[in-house]
């Protein structure tokens, strides 16, 4: 099956929506391009179901109290800071790949979220956020009355 056929089968494919997504991703790439490695956004995974979304972010070395989670409309924002201790004594870095400093990641979700029911869990450097869909944003089935 070709990629185009897969989109046609979905029935909800929109070239304009896909172009807007590509534009957002390109904007993120260019925003990161000039920043030092210490400020690169943490990698995330996002799952979406009918009634909720889930976000998992890799935040090794980040203290749970250094993470700020906020939601505005359909945008989830993760902010925080990763601190790295300087080498002791006269030691100096030989190799340094893990960044440190402040980070901020904004994720646009495909629906509005019930912010009062959001739950976040942090374990072993992984942040998991469950985002239930707002009741007002859920699709409603409308019964058709026969005459």
Question: What features would you describe in this structure?
Answer:
With 147 residues, the chain is an alpha+beta fold. The chain folds into two domains: 34 residues; 81 residues, Immunoglobulin-like. It contains two helices and seven strands; from the N terminus they run H-H-E-E-E-E-E-E-E. The protein has a four-stranded antiparallel β-sheet, with no helix packed on it. Strand 3 and strand 4 form a beta hairpin.
Topology overview:
Elements: H1 3-10, H2 15-33, E1 44-48, E2 52-58, E3 67-72, E4 75-82, E5 101-108, E6 119-123, E7 126-132
Antiparallel strand pairs: 1-2, 2-7, 3-4, 4-5, 6-7
Q: What's the helix count?
A: 2
What's the number of extended β-strand segments?
Answer: 7
Structural class: alpha+beta
Q: Quickly name the level 1 CATH class of the largest domain.
A: Mainly Beta
Distance between the termini: 43 Å
Assembly state (oligomeric): single chain
Question: How many domains would you count in the coordinates?
Answer: 2
Helix and strand run: HHEEEEEEE
Q: Which fold name is given in CATH as the topology of the largest domain?
A: Immunoglobulin-like
Radius of gyration: 20 Å
**How would you sum up the global shape?**
elongated
Fraction in helix: 10-25%
Q: What would the average pLDDT be, to the nearest integer?
A: 82
Largest sheet: 4 strands, antiparallel
Proportion of β residues? Answer: 25-35%
Taking pLDDT < 50 over at least 5 consecutive residues as the criterion, the unreliable ranges are none
Main sheet: strand order? 1-2-7-6
């Amino acid at each position: 099956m070709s990629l185009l056929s897969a989109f046609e089968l979905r029935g909800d494919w929109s070239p304009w929506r896909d172009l807007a997504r590509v534009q957002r991703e390109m904007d993120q790439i260019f925003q990161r391009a000039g920043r030092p490695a210490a400020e690169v956004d943490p990698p995330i995974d996002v799952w979406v179901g009918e009634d909720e979304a889930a976000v998992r972010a890799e935040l090794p070395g980040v203290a749970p109290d250094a993470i700020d989670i906020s939601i505005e409309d359909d945008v989830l924002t993760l902010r925080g800071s990763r601190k790295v201790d300087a080498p002791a004594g006269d030691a100096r870095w030989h190799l340094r790949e893990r960044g440190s400093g402040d980070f901020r990641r904004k994720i646009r979700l495909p629906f509005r979220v019930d912010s009062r029911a959001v739950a976040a869990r942090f374990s072993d450097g992984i942040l998991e956020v469950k985002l239930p869909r707002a009741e007002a944003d859920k699709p409603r089935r409308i019964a058709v009355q026969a005459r």
